[in-house]
Amino acid sequence: MFVGDALAQVRFDPFGLQFSFESERLINVENAIIHIEPDGTAWSYDCQAEHRPPVILHRLLGRNIHSVEREDLRLTFTFEDGSSLAILSDLNGYESGAIVTAETGHVMF
Predict the structure, then answer these.
(1) Rounded to two decimals, what is the model's pTM?
(2) Which helix (H) or strand (E) holds 106?
(3) What are the tens digits of pLDDT across the range 28-79?
């Protein structure tokens, strides 16, 4: 569903992140992400942390998604330049985010 799409916008709010795509799909993240650059440098971001670290997500803007993989509690987008964005979930009893598309509506995870 996301392959060939491009990340258009990243928004920060007090309790999470929002990723908007050129297709108008949206992912809300309320747990954590890991952004891995093509050289292997990893940038973690915990949406619930009191002191959040800096991120360089702007490097993903406009990049096309090459592949999407799902593992237990992790959805990973790999971009055309070899960088990746992993969206992490957990089993704490609350949702970790939502995927919003015209095709599926709201899907909580």
Answers:
(1) 0.90
(2) strand 105-108
(3) 999 999 999 999 999 999 998 888 888 899 999 999 999 999 999 999 999 9
Residue 84 resides in a domain: yes
Domain coverage including residue 14: 7-108
Does residue 2 lie within any of the structural domains?
Answer: no
Cβ–Cβ under 8 Å, residues 11 and 20: yes
| Residue 83 included in any domain | yes
Indicate the residue type of 50: E
Q: What is the pLDDT of residues 81-92, one digit of tens each?
A: 999 999 999 887
Q: How many domains does the chain have?
A: 1
Nearest-CA neighbor of 23 among 44, 1, 50, 43?
1
Plot region of 93 (φ>0 → left; ψ -120 to 50 → alpha; else → beta): left
Whether 87 is covered by a domain: the verdict is yes
CA dihedral 89, 3, 57, 38 (to 10 degrees): 100
